[in-house]
């Protein structure tokens, strides 16, 4: 006789429905729910990139700011968006949950883009157009304040969305079920694919609308897309699977450091077996199931957090979690600290990548962008070559490079995460070398034809000369993205998986901020003579800036190689120590 399915089989462990009851497997989650979440990512990419890639031309052409100032405004905006992912992830994991995070921050992002749209419609919020015989008037303080308010409200919404959408989408699948785990992996692949589709639509269709129909139309479409995605998302409320906030891993890191500091004057025991572990089973709360990590001798000052120095009251152990941590918690924090050098050595790559959305777009405005007699490519649409290369590199790696790497390196997964990342760093150097050579050729052409003061670009070098630098950076980003994300997901402790996306995105954020600092410094040093990044690029020496980035990238690669050689993968360390889960 067939047995009835158990409650465990009919419901999903650790997941709840809209009413707070255990989520029924047949009525919640799955592809139906996940697809309603994907729309939020498409809208976020469409809006964010639709604003970012064409923002430098808006700042120079409409707000009449210089190239260096415009590039810095763009990089600060995007850098803040990525940095706020840490805040959004902390809020969602610790307090409100991913569902509410998405709903609230989508509304915040829509508000920011709506304000940006209004600023392009009201004439008083932008300076007058340049007249033929009079100098251009830069945007005043009021106009810039409205612009910055719109951008940073948008950045806040973007940070909350980016940190929550992939996690909430994967929550719709049960990782303990073999079939659903396969579906979850497919969802993550589709998530990255749809994210790039949204990016491609932004740099082609949306940019074309902005340039030919007006910014108000382009930004208005972004608002409609976000609102529509939010409505679709809310329609699935009763179908979703929810997981209760379990606390941020940032808290665990803070707890370990606080406990180690409070016991800094105590002596460490000679035997690590005397330190506090889960086996003592005296925690004030139920112990969490974690992978046991071998005790390491690095960062030994953190071991003091696990020294058994507590009070005994009536035979009951009284423990303050801010005073005592388990050895596993300490080793997890150590593991994160060991990963930080790898993370830090990828920041320069994103500094190179951001040039494709700022200075390379400014280059494109000075070049011949005509196809035929009537059609002219929007300058910002050149980034479509970058995104298109990303979409092509991933399947090319899977079908051609990976099989060869498996045979040559005798590694079942092909390139390791650190090798993936290293390839991306090498490609970033090559992209800046190509960019410097192409910019030198462009300036030689301009000077030889007496076009130094001509900004129309119609009689200048073809814009397609810029394609190599966009494609090389795009291929490098594909390798960097696959390698670095795989590195964080694999190496981050099990209890800190949600922090991996925040760390990954924060490295991009720092790369954007470093770009702003570098542009400002270079402009300040070179301005008294002949500025490298001039308001009129035909009168500057941008190729020198690209050479500087190539040199910095080469130095960074050497540092990365040293860090990668020093690093030992978690699974290898565990197997060497003979520690089991």
Automatic annotation (TrEMBL):
Q: Where in the cell is it found?
A: Membrane
Molecular function terms from GO? transmembrane transporter activity
> Chief location of this protein?
membrane
Which Pfam families does the entry link to? PTR2 (PF00854)
Mind listing the UniProt keywords for this protein, alphabetically? Membrane, Transmembrane, Transmembrane helix
Question: Does the record carry Membrane as a key word?
Answer: yes
InterPro entries tied to this protein: MFS_trans_sf, POT_fam
* Family, per entry: Belongs to the major facilitator superfamily. Proton-dependent oligopeptide transporter (POT/PTR) (TC 2.A.17) family.
The molecule here is called Uncharacterized protein
Q: Which organism is it from?
A: Pisum sativum
